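Team,

Forwarding the record for the chain on the shared tracking sheet. I've put the sequence and predicted structure together so nobody has to dig through attachments.
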Amino acid sequence: MKVIKPYQSMSKDEIEHRAMDVLQRVQAKRKRPLKFPLDAGHLAESLGLDMDCGEIAPDEQGAIAAMILPTERKIIMNESSLNLPRGFEESSIAHEIGHWELHIDQNAISKFVELQDSGVETNVEPFLCRSVNTQQGIERQAQYFASCLLMPLFKIEDVKRGRDLTKWRHLYAMKDELGVTISHLTYRLQVLGLIYIPKDSKQIYPGRTVS
């Protein structure tokens, strides 16, 4: 019995729906509306996940950005990845929430925990998260989930109101309001078709969905 689901292709709409489901579940536990920028650590805790950080040594496949201990419901961030630009930590935690929601079998975890509680010795390997640059399908899915979680469509519509998305100063103001990195924001806006930035260029053009 494994706790990691076999890789499955998922549409962006499905991933967006799963991220919105998380926001709705967290909001249902609150009396007040969620505030932006979102605190990804708070979202994780609201889902029953513990947060920690520490030194995670690389293995034979390279650097490890974070890991999840499934039966302990714990996310451990590599402390070396936290000394990065503001907004990176929130993106990283949201990315791990994406793995938890999309790629870890919650029913299998419950069965393992029941076995452990009954005294049966079990061994569940940690889920290791590597750089998105590995181009692994699950990493791309988790990264898109993170962008949907931290920048849901309704909030994108709110922060872009009255702004010119082809001007960098407007995008930087938006990324501050959303609490994300500028690269994460431009990624989200390009996927939504709101802007287009050619590779190795700083020029921003209106996207396909802009009339």
